[in-house]
Design a protein that fits this description.
Elements (H helix, E strand, L loop, with lengths): L9 E4 L8 E8 L6 E5 L5 E6 L9 E6 L1 E3 L3 E4 L6 E2 L1 E7 L5 E7 L8 H31 L1
Antiparallel strand pairs: 1-2, 1-7, 2-3, 3-6, 4-5, 7-8, 9-10
Length: 145
């Protein structure tokens, strides 16, 4: 079975001590007993353990780190509707005629992978904005001369 929750997804915990809390997936860990996700968020419980200093310069002490949660105890939050949802898969034809799988929200039908494309469009928009502002500055300098 493929893992449907990926790194940087927003998730809500649906079972356990932190039920109802939300956070961001830091890592997805595959294991023999099942898959787990490491969730980072405010108010989530952490594992505390003592670390012994290895040399004179290193400090020892109690270290807190995020706890790994079973993947069945979290639900992804749709970036469009903002609700925890099940994940569906839509298969479409790609550029080269290959089949492309896309994760979709079962409630609203929007793509859950849209966020990554939004980042790419923001980068493109910022590049074009800097080019336009540079062009305006050069045009303004030419008009002043």
């Amino acid at each position: 079975m493929s893992i449907s929750i990926k790194k940087e997804d927003a998730v809500q915990i649906i079972a356990g001590a932190d039920k109802g809390k939300t956070g961001e997936v830091v890592a997805v860990v595959k294991g023999e007993k099942g898959d787990k996700v490491v969730v980072k968020g405010s108010g989530l419980t952490t594992d505390k353990h003592f670390v012994k200093p290895r040399n004179a310069q290193q400090r020892g002490g109690i270290i807190e780190k995020e706890r790994a949660i079973d993947i069945s105890n979290v639900m992804i939050i749709c970036p469009t509707c903002g609700k925890p949802t099940k994940i569906g898969v839509s298969v479409s034809e790609g550029e080269n005629g290959k089949k492309v799988k896309t994760r979709i929200c079962k409630k609203c039908g929007e793509s859950l992978d849209k966020r990554k494309s939004v980042r790419a469009t923001k980068k493109k928009a910022s590049k074009t904005a800097t080019k336009k502002s540079a062009a305006k500055k050069s045009a303004k300098d030419d008009s002043e001369k």
